Amino acid sequence: MKSTKRQIDGGIILILIIFAVLVTFIFIEYQQLPIEIYFLFALNTLLIVFAYSLGLVAGLIGSMAAVFCYGTYLVYGAVVKGLMMEVNYQQVMWLFLFPLSSYISGRLSLAIKETIEKSEKYIKDMEELVLLDKETGFSNSKKFYLDLSEEISKSKRYGTPLSIMLIKLQYFDELRSIYGNEVCSNAVINISRKITELSRDIDKKARLEADKFALILSNTDEKGALVLKERLVKFLENLEISDEEDRRKLNLSFKIGIAQLEDKEEDAIAFKERAERELEYDVR
Q1: Which of 79, 98, 139, 214 could make an SS bond with 63 (beta carbons 3.0 to 4.6 A apart)?
Q2: Distance between CA 276 and CA 284 in Å, rounded?
Q3: What parts of the sequence cross the membrane (predicted)?
Q4: Mean pLDDT of 258-262
Q5: Domains of the chain
Q6: What is the DSSP string of 60-127?
Q7: Can you name the residues that pair with 249 across neighbouring β-strands?
């Protein structure tokens, strides 16, 4: 956000400087402006830059100081020197223009900052959505590999065990073509809820494919992962896909593979591939 805000700030201030330079050129070249008006214009420009750069409150304080100084000058000229007739509405106008310009500039700075913050929040939210499976709320495959790499680094650093579990639903595409997306989607949601219920909060869950889930079990060895596997097997064996049209029920077939981090040089891809091999050997 800071770099974006800095670029916008620089552009606006540059525009003000160019405008001030043009007015200065006109004044020097054609002497169309009285020196007092030119001075007041320059002061107002500085107040605008001041309020934009430092914020609304600082800008209003600066403008009040300018109003006090210029107001004192007018009173001094009117009372002490008896120049009452020379104090006109144009001079009084600057007493209102100083705080008004500072207020608008400060509000503009604040609005730009808030807009940038909201935009970056939306971008962050979108990035998070890209890393999530919208059906289950689990991480997608991209986030899974990022999380797994992070957990491998922690395991190597602290010497703690790390396991991963893959859960693959068998014949999922065939079931979807028979029962339809809605029925299979409900089954997937039920499975994801049960995975969340049976696992720990610190365990990271992912949906790698339409028919494949993964769990990253930090600080868990293969023995501990097998305990979770038994619970999931018990649930999945009793899970049924219901077809309301012909009132049939069909049990899901599935495989579960577990791998514990062993080779300290193993990366996320190799670790996951080892779990894939274990997945193929799971027969019941």
Answers
A1: 98
A2: 17
A3: 12-30, 37-54, 60-80
A4: 93
A5: 2-130 (no CATH), 141-280 (3.30.70.270)
A6: HHHHHHHHHHHHHHHHIIIIIS--GGG--HHHHHHHHHHHHHHHHHHHHHHHHHHHHHHHHHHHHHHH
A7: 242
Distance CA 97, CA 107 (A): 15
| Element spanning 243, H or E | strand 240-243
Here the tokens at position 100 are 């008004």
Cα distance between the two ends of the chain: 54
CA–CA gap between residue 149 and residue 154 (Å, rounded) = 9
Instruction: Note the pLDDT tens digit of each residue in 73-116.
Output: 887 777 766 555 465 677 788 888 889 888 888 888 888 888 88
Neighbours of 258 (CB within 10 A): 23
- Cα separation, 90 vs 166, in Å, equals 78
* Long-range pairs for 57-64: beta carbons < 8 A, 24 or more residues apart: 57/106, 58/106, 59/102, 59/103, 59/105, 59/106, 60/99, 60/102, 60/103, 60/106, 62/102, 63/98, 63/99, 63/101, 63/102, 63/103, 64/99
pLDDT digits (tens, 9 = 90+) for 231-246: 999 888 887 666 555 5
The Cα–Cα gap between 157 and 194 comes to 32
